[in-house]
Amino acid sequence: MPLRSFQSFFIALVLCGSFLVSSSTVIAQTPVNITPDVVYGHKDGLAMTIDVFQPKEKANGAAIAFMVSGGWFSRWTPPEQARGFFEPYLGAGYTVFAVRHGSSPRYGIPDAVADVRRAIRFIRLHAKDYNVDEDRIGAMGMSAGGHLSLMLATTGDDGDSNASDPILRVSSRVAAVAALVPPSDLRVAVWEAEESLPAYRNFPALEMSVKEAAKYSPLVFVTTDDAPSLVISGTKDTLVPPKHGKWIADAFQEIGVTHKLILLDANHGLQGKQTEAFAAVLEWFGEYLKKN
User: Which CATH superfamily is domain 3-288 in?
Assistant: First the structure.
């Protein structure tokens, strides 16, 4: 499939509500306040931004940081159009932060990982401004967004108290993660890897060495302090095979990290199983982002 077609496919999945939300539920129901283009940092003179969606009523004080990423492409879309995708979470009372990172092909996976870590620090630093609990921040995403969410789950830190930038003094840890059809080990995906699939040539972000890929593979960083993680993989997924979900679930199991792996009889877009996936995500966050 041509690169442009792949880009369009992922943008449609991530931003147009074709994933998790059926066409009958895309129309907004929950009254929300939308704060667009909140700047959480700069890169090469360019602003990195978040759109914030806050329920006007019955907000539960928890936040979900949604990684706007497919193939490590992160594109802007009008928040009024994107908000329908977040309706299930808004309806359940979550404040949603749509996080955009420096996008491929100009920026690579190292940049994306650094950007989303900074975004979590920013959200925590400004949690009171958005009426959310800094200890009840979750992260989620699909495909590359799922990979970035797992990187947050496995590599969160407490911040650098000596940093001159106040944002970098704040923790990048999240309380829970939901990763849908995520690659968990980039060492088998980058172009030079023997196991790399032909389709991966459509993703410039994967043009990196196996050695470098190890630095950005969640599987490598599983430790006992990782965030509780839900991983959903499709058994018919030929782009990110379900073995990625099993690999990291096995690693979590071996070391005792709270986790759940769900294998759905579906392809990379989880078509036909979206409602089931949506329910599982809400149940997971309901358990691990609940108020103590």
Answer: Alpha/Beta hydrolase fold, catalytic domain (3.40.50.1820)
